[in-house]
Amino acid sequence: MEARTIEGRCHCGNICFVLRWPDASPRIPARACGCTFCTKHGGVWTSRPDAELDARIADASAVSRYRFGTASADFLVCSRCGVVPLVTSEIEGRLYAVVNVNTFENVDRGSIDRASAHFEGEEAGPRLARRQRNWIASVRIG
């Protein structure tokens, strides 16, 4: 099946990305995380381990990396506009990521299948293993 290219960015464009989705399916699954940070920031995440993510940060001094809970993921927050387009997690020397579907530029919002997700109480080991299985495994940030 043909790959699909999805573009996304924070509101001001300081953090932007190109996501190469492995198939051209019109539906994109997404997880609306129920944690307080994601709820307050509109975090609705998608990923596939066989997707490829190329992210660009125009001004790194205007990006905050926020960690909380298990401190095993970096939420990339644009300090200019406050949007969180992606989250990264380094596991065993490899960078993994999820992207916020609310930051997509060229995707029909009706094609996103949102489901609730709750990870409260998940221990660090199982959390990292879940990320290795489900998050984007080909990540480049420049």
Overview of the structural elements:
There is one protein chain. It is globular and about 35 Å long. It is mostly beta strands. It is 12% helix and 42% strand. The model has no long low-confidence stretch (mean pLDDT 93). The strands form two sheets. A seven-stranded mixed sheet has the order 6-7-8-9-4-3-10, covered by helices on one side. A hairpin with a 7-residue loop joins strand 6 and strand 7. It has a single domain, classed as Beta Complex (Metal Binding Protein, Guanine Nucleotide Exchange Factor, Chain A), CATH 2.170.150.70.
Give the SSE layout.
Elements: E1 4-9, E2 15-21, E3 28-33, H1 36-41, E4 44-46, E5 52-57, E6 63-66, E7 74-78, E8 86-91, E9 94-100, E10 112-117, H2 124-134, E11 138-141
Parallel strand pairs: 3-10, 5-11
Antiparallel strand pairs: 1-2, 2-5, 3-4, 4-9, 6-7, 7-8, 8-9
Biggest sheet architecture: 7 strands, mixed
**Level of helix content?**
10-25%
Strand arrangement across the biggest beta sheet = 6-7-8-9-4-3-10
What do the pLDDT scores average to? Answer: 93
Helical segment count? 2
Assembly status: single chain
Percent of sequence in beta strands: 35-45%
Give the CA-based shape.
Answer: globular
CATH hierarchy: architecture:
Beta Complex
Order of helices and strands: EEEHEEEEEEEHE
Give the N-terminus to C-terminus distance in angstroms. Answer: 29 Å
